[in-house]
Amino acid sequence: MPTLAIVKKFNVSFDASYAPVAVFVGGTSGVGQGMVEAFARSVHGRAHIIIVGRNGYAAADIIARLPRPDEDGWKHEFVSCDASLMANVRALCAEIRAKVKRINFLVITTGYSSMVNIGITSEGLDLHLALRYYQRYVFIHELLPLVQAAHSLSEDSKILCVLGAGRGSPKRPIDLNNLGNTVNPRAGGFTVALRSMIASSGYTDAMLAHFAAQNPGIAFTHIHPGVVRTPTMGADFSGLLTPVSWLINFILHFIAVPQEECAEHMLYALFNGERGLFLRDRYGDVVSALEFEAPVELGESVETSVLNGVPMKGYGASDIGVRRIIEHSETVTRTK
Ligand SMILES: NC(=O)c1ccc[n+]([C@@H]2O[C@H](COP(=O)([O-])OP(=O)(O)OC[C@H]3O[C@@H](n4cnc5c(N)ncnc54)[C@H](OP(=O)(O)O)[C@@H]3O)[C@@H](O)[C@H]2O)c1
């Protein structure tokens, strides 16, 4: 487990011969904000940094405090997007493709968690899954050609999702009969929310495994941030269970780490690992990883926590699960 001092030292030693292009989806708050700030320090501001979110005021405040080099060749900007709708995400990705020719780092920290609000979006998607999973799929799918362009220039080409890595187990396979969490009955807010929250981690494992298997030169990382003091942290039970929320939030306050500290570990994870699939813990340590020598079509194996015949600790999908989840994601995000 690398200490905070070690990861900070490692992060500031990052030295690229070019000005990197980095996109931070969810960079207006929490872990994402901390990562934007730590990344900007590592490159002394010499990068094209694109922050994606809804809160333009927060973004302007963050951007105003980033280091600004004297030389040209850098840009720090905000682009607005409500990522709960996939049509918005696709439009925003087209906007980004018109702005830049390559992306070196694509970081997605967008989050949503509620024990009581279990809406369906106007596009017919479960709100939790839209914000925790589907938008990640669409961002990566639509921006992958730019990350591939960075790879073809022999530059850093890395994609990182901060969500819930390492939670998979052979005892908890993804429910392939309730893909999207809209098939089974949706009575009972808490149960439905919990199903989506658990599913989003397995779906993200599956999605990143799919892209890693198809793009052996690029690094795809799913990482768990631990408990972090941010707006997303905590429980929001209502009614008779409100005191339970108070208690949980009181306890979490003492065990949570500041977003700046978490962000250094997340950045360490982003900079480490050249290619393949990585599942990492809150310190940035590898829980499991797999490199592919050439593009691979995954098969029909139903074994959870096994990827292309290799056992993967904490990996929440199976090869057939990857195929089914990608088919499902393509169908429900394309028709919007
Ligand atoms: N904090 C924790 O203890 C913890 C624990 C486990 C996992 N995680 C996961 O870690 C990730 C980061 O969490 P965090 O605590 O840093 O979250 P956070 O502080 O609440 O930040 C969430 C980010 O998502 C963006 N976002 C939310 N809804 C959006 C929408 N509809 N459209 C566009 N952007 C939206 C927000 O931007 P705008 O407000 O500008 O829209 C914000 O930048 C999340 O995936 C979370 O599930 C966190």
Automatic annotation (TrEMBL):
Coiled coil location: none
Keyword Oxidoreductase: yes
Record key words, sorted: Oxidoreductase
Domain of life: Eukaryota
Pfam families recorded: adh_short
Molecular functions (GO terms): oxidoreductase activity
Keyword Oxidoreductase: yes
InterPro entries linked: NAD(P)-bd_dom_sf (IPR036291), SDR_fam (IPR002347), Sec_Metab_Biosynth_Oxidored (IPR052228)
PANTHER family per UniProt: ALCOHOL DEHYDROGENASE-LIKE C-TERMINAL DOMAIN-CONTAINING PROTEIN, YALI0E05731P
Entry protein name: NAD(P)-binding protein
